[in-house]
UniProtKB/TrEMBL annotation:
UniProt keyword Nucleotide-binding, yes or no: yes
Binding of AMP, residues: 402-406, 431
Domain YjeF C-terminal: from-to ranges: 223-492
Domain called YjeF N-terminal: residue spans: 11-215
Organism: Massilia arenae
Biological role stated in the UniProt entry: Catalyzes the epimerization of the S- and R-forms of NAD(P)HX, a damaged form of NAD(P)H that is a result of enzymatic or heat-dependent hydration. This is a prerequisite for the S-specific NAD(P)H-hydrate dehydratase to allow the repair of both epimers of NAD(P)HX.
Record protein name field: Bifunctional NAD(P)H-hydrate repair enzyme
Catalyzed reaction equations: (6S)-NADHX + ADP = AMP + phosphate + NADH + H(+); (6R)-NADHX = (6S)-NADHX; (6R)-NADPHX = (6S)-NADPHX; (6S)-NADPHX + ADP = AMP + phosphate + NADPH + H(+)
Keyword terms: ATP-binding, Isomerase, Lyase, Metal-binding, Multifunctional enzyme, NAD, NADP, Nucleotide-binding, Potassium
Residues annotated as binding (6S)-NADPHX: 59-63, 126-132, 137, 155, 258, 312, 365, 432
């Protein structure tokens, strides 16, 4: 899957350009038709169930009115809960209202308690929402929370910021849809932050607008086409040196598990040799993974090795020394966990990072990202794309900002949102495994951008596989991920070979 993501400003420009060449109301009629077609598909053979259509004050409400009229024409029992605003509706929305009025649509002005619906269509607000959903609108959204049927959002689930995926406003509220049909281009907010929980499955309908009319998108959904060329079958005539060395630097006193999880991630993602360079006295070996070699970090030679630095590393003087040495080296570098916090606190380490020429990939969660940027995690989460872009620009590195809809950014402003993964990844150690996978791909010669995109995608796909097998999301452990990562990777290579 590869899909461009447009900002509201870009969508308004697309809308304006498309609008100019069409009869008034055409786009809204197309949106209403796409919505009612999708609604009929969701109803399937339950077309006798009543459908509730929520129509708000703006053009999103106009889309909903068109959809309601279409459903009634198709013989569906469609009821509109109409909540117009104080201002006059646009000409198109007024026309859609007249059309629905003339048909066999039912009308209500409040949510009847206890009513049962086969489907709810949310056309309260779309990309025009700029302040929190309140008053009667809020009451309706609260009322939806107890309704147990599919909810189809038109364009954007009402209450969600289409650019950022944040629910609008302090103490804001947004519709939790099971499906979203989005118009004129996909939107980043449907795929990150609160977006995945509120949008459900996303379908894009371009309303007949051709790709030549679209601006250049600086954000897209990540997907196999971005890195599929790297999945080549291994040649027979190879050896462990052919697939790179990865060294995990971390494991201070009491934190030996984190680098071991990273090391397993690297091993199962195909690195030739994997070391743990431990700050504390290294264990002799890992009995469940004896392939991992343990060394003391202080006198470990970084040369020719890909480094994953930070898991369980702590903030000792020795940790800072090792991090400075790693930043100054020519080794490809994944920077995780404690190493990120140390960089956030040190202008000296920041300038060493910014001056690097070898690949560097940073893997912050929102709090680590916040420390790097000198802001709060809430501010990072309020605009994850912008935060990831800013981090990439300041550090001159590729950034993987973890969380629901992980954002991957590079210094030139290009951004990906990863669509794989699930809540099972919200568990201790899963980030360590991700850093290890990323290290393994760098060690096999991938660029920082490809390694970051693919490691995130594969890590999420591995978690999705585990959920399909009944292992999670509840109770999924980080230690279960590496074997699933191996399965996903080998399947991708096999699929690539058979294409
Ligand atoms: N134009 C086109 O060609 C096409 C448009 N399309 C569709 O239009 C949608 C965009 O329409 P839109 O711009 O009218 O904005 P929309 O999201 O409906 O809401 C804005 C309205 O809500 C009001 N309002 C805002 N916040 C509020 C609050 N908290 N509480 C109460 N009221 C509030 C606000 O009022 P105001 O702020 O002006 O007082 C204004 O009236 C887009 O998402 C897509 O679905 C498609 O058909 C494709 C073709
Ligand atoms: K909506």
């Amino acid at each position: 899957m590869e899909r461009h993501l447009y900002t509201v400003a870009q969508l308004r420009a697309i809308e304006q350009a498309a609008y100019a060449g069409l009869a008034p109301g055409t786009l809204m009629q197309r949106a209403g038709k796409a919505a009612s077609d999708f609604a009929l598909e969701l109803l399937g053979d339950r077309r006798d169930r009543p459908v509730l259509v929520l129509a708000g004050p703006g053009n999103n409400g106009g889309d909903a009115l068109e959809a309601a009229a279409n459903l009634a024409d198709a013989g569906v029992d469609a009821t509109v809960l109409h909540l117009p605003g104080r201002r006059d509706a646009s000409t198109e929305t007024a026309a859609a209202y007249e059309r629905a009025r003339a048909g066999s649509v039912g009308w209500i002005d409040m949510l009847p308690p206890g009513a049962e619906w086969g489907l709810v269509i949310d056309g309260l607000f779309g990309i025009g929402l700029e302040r929190p959903v309140d008053g009667d609108y809020r009451e309706v959204v609260v009322g939806l929370e107890t309704i147990r049927c599919p909810i189809l959002a038109l364009d954007v689930p009402s209450g969600l910021d289409a650019d950022t995926g944040a629910v609008i406003g302090p103490d804001g509220i947004a519709v939790r849809a099971t499906h979203t049909i989005t118009f004129l281009g996909d939107k980043p907010g449907l795929h990150t932050a609160d977006g995945r929980d509120h949008a459900g499955q996303v379908r894009v309908d371009m309303l007949g607008v051709g790709s030549e009319a679209l601006p250049r998108a600086t954000a897209q959904l990540s997907g196999l086409p971005l890195f599929a060329g790297r999945f080549t079958a291994r040649r027979h005539n190879t050896h462990k040196g052919s697939f790179g060395d990865v060294a995990i630097i971390g494991g201070a006193h009491g934190m030996a598990g984190a680098p071991v999880l990273s090391a397993r991630g690297a091993l199962y993602a195909g690195a030739g040799r994997v070391y743990v360079a431990a700050l504390n006295t290294p264990p002799g070996y890992d009995s469940s993974q004896p392939e991992i070699m343990f060394r003391a970090a202080e006198d470990f030679d970084f040369f020719g090795r890909t480094l994953v630095i930070g898991p369980g590393m702590g903030d000792s003087a020795s940790a800072i020394r090792l991090l400075a040495r790693a930043l100054d080296s020519d080794s490809p570098l994944v920077i995780d966990a404690d190493a990120l916090n140390l960089i956030g606190a040190s202008p000296d380490l920041q300038s060493r990072l910014a001056q690097r020429t070898a690949p560097a990939v940073l893997t912050p969660h929102p709090l680590e990202g916040a420390r790097l940027l000198g802001m709060t995690a809430a501010v990072v989460q309020s605009d994850r794309l912008e935060a990831a872009r800013e981090m990439a620009l300041r550090t001159n590195a590729t950034v993987i900002l973890k969380g629901s809809g992980t954002v991957i950014a590079r210094p030139d402003g290009e951004v990906l949102i990863n669509p794989t993964g699930n809540a099972g990844l919200a568990t201790a150690g899963s980030g360590d495994v991700l850093a290890g996978i990323c290290g393994a791909l760098l060690a096999q010669g991938w660029t920082g951008w490809e390694a970051a995109a693919a490691a995130t995608w594969i890590h999420g796909a591995a978690a999705d596989t585990l959920v399909d097998e009944g292992v999670g999301p509840i109770g999924m452990t980080a230690g279960e991920l590496p074997a699933a990562v191996r399965k996903v990777l080998n399947r991708l290579v096999k699929d690539a070979a058979s294409r």
